[in-house]
Amino acid sequence: MDEIVTEIEIDASPEAVWAVLTDFEAYPDWNPALEIAGEAVEGKRLEVTMEYENTRAMTFRPKVLVMDKPTEFRWQGHLFVAGLYDGEHRFVLTALDDGERTRLTQAETFHGVLVGFINRRIGDDVEAGFNQVNEALKRRVENSSSQP
């Protein structure tokens, strides 16, 4: 098992962050690394394309495990077949300052026989990509929140 965990604080409510995070159609306007298509409903599959700096684009069809508005969005995906390189990806929104601010945790827990091999090669780039998405989400939400 291996895990990547990133966090950022956003000057907006969890509801405002959730609205941007789950508006997949608007991702091309702000998200530098992720494209998501499909309906985010527990038990359904999404089509997710991830392309972080220094990595090749990967497209997979993870299953939505948790969709708990406005606190958690979690999916599980596999590279090729289950058991080789599996990832449980999560976005957790924690209210701060009586709900006026949000701590976003974006993380992924990896399992499978190829985890050590793959993460030694791309783990740092994936972590940097998570941070890049976090920063872009923060900018998008805070700029949207400041609009009249």
UniProtKB/TrEMBL annotation:
CDD domains from the UniProt entry: SRPBCC_4 (cd07822)
One Pfam family hit: Polyketide_cyc2
Recorded coiled-coil stretches: none
Record's protein name: SRPBCC family protein
Organism of this sequence: Halosegnis marinus
